[in-house]
Amino acid sequence: FHLPSETDGQNLMERSPPKSAAAAAAVAAPASANEADSAEAKARRQSKLPARAVAQSLLSVVGIFLAALFLMHLVLQQMPPLKEQEQSVVKLPRNLEDAKALGAVLLNYKDKHFYGLMMLFVCVYIFLQSFAIPGSIFLSILSGTLFPFPLALFLVCFCSAVGASNAFLVSKHFCASLVQHYFPARCATWQAQVDRHRGHIFNYMIFLRVTPFLPNWFINIAAPVIKVDLQPFFLGTFFGVAPPSMLFVRAGSALHEISTTKDIMPLSTMLSLVAFGFVSLVPVLFKERLKRNLE
Fold first, then answer.
1. What's the pLDDT band for 274 if we cut at 50, 70, 90?
2. Around 166, how many Cα atoms within 13 Å sit in the side-chain half-sphere?
3. Which residues contact 37 (CB under 8 A, 6 or more apart)?
4. Quick one: pLDDT band at residue 295, thresholds 50, 70, 90?
5. pLDDT tens profile 110-141
6. CA 151 to chain centre
């Protein structure tokens, strides 16, 4: 006799398919996130990317980043002169305390430099979103301190959509091969889901932005790889970030009363946002059902 080998196991599985679609999905799907990661690592080893292509993509991204950083420097030069004790406070907020201190300083310049302050906010926010740099959440909160609620909400949604679209375009023109190489399994999985929602991609983009199922940075760089058009991507992002942004902007109007980020986004609120994301797909379900009835 001989012990069953891996090849025998594979042949047995081929001869004995699962009895149901659910069982087939259970066999085919990775059992854990670790297995998905190992599948991507295996795919990267099997598909070698030319070193020249990698270098060109990285140099292009670095060049774009440096150019954007230089433009940010020019914008910051237009700020009004700060007092010596204020200079250490004017920095990118990393926590609520930084946001509170920065808001207190900028409020002193709000009346005399309103439009300049608004332009500075827009440029910094788009820069952070374009390169997935942390800190935009605290800027969203800060917008509620500096601007009226409708204007603050519009600016946050607009900057989020423009920044995400910048990342979309950079990925499309310079990094598509890198994204496919380093995230093959995730791209393939999301490709299948997008293909099922291709007829209502706008609603699906709203759903993805509201719910936490996919990280925003991955959506931004992978969307052009799986052939999502820029227009529904931009509009879906603009409207999709509105519900959570309303909470952040509203919190900014009472910034000094907030002690932790849990005060802004408690678990009940997060569950409500997830429910809202599913509600965004309800019109799609009714449309598909009506189409089946008419057929």
1. low
2. 18
3. none
4. low
5. 888 899 899 999 999 999 999 999 888 889 99
6. 22
- Whether the CB-CB separation of 185 and 150 falls below 8 Å is answered with no
The answer to whether the beta carbons of residues 249 and 156 sit under 8 Å apart is yes
Strand (E) or helix (H) holding 78: none
CA neighbours within 13 Å on the CB side: how many for 126? 20
Rounded-to-10 torsion of CA 127, 129, 131, 134: 100
φ, ψ for residue 32, nearest 5 deg: -155, 170
In one-letter notation, the amino acid at residue 133 is I
C-alpha–C-alpha distance, residues 110 and 113, integer Å: 5
Output the six-digit token pair for 190: 């999301």
Angle at alpha carbon of residue 149, lines to 231 and 217, rounded to 5°: 40
Q: What is the 3-state secondary structure (H, E, C) of 188-242?
A: HHHHHHHHHCHHHHHHHHHHHHHCCCCCHHHHHHHCCCCCCCHHHHHHHHHHHCH
Planar angle of CA 158, 161, 164, nearest 5 degrees? 145
- C-alpha span between 280 and 240 (Å, rounded): 9
* pTM score, whole prediction: 0.75
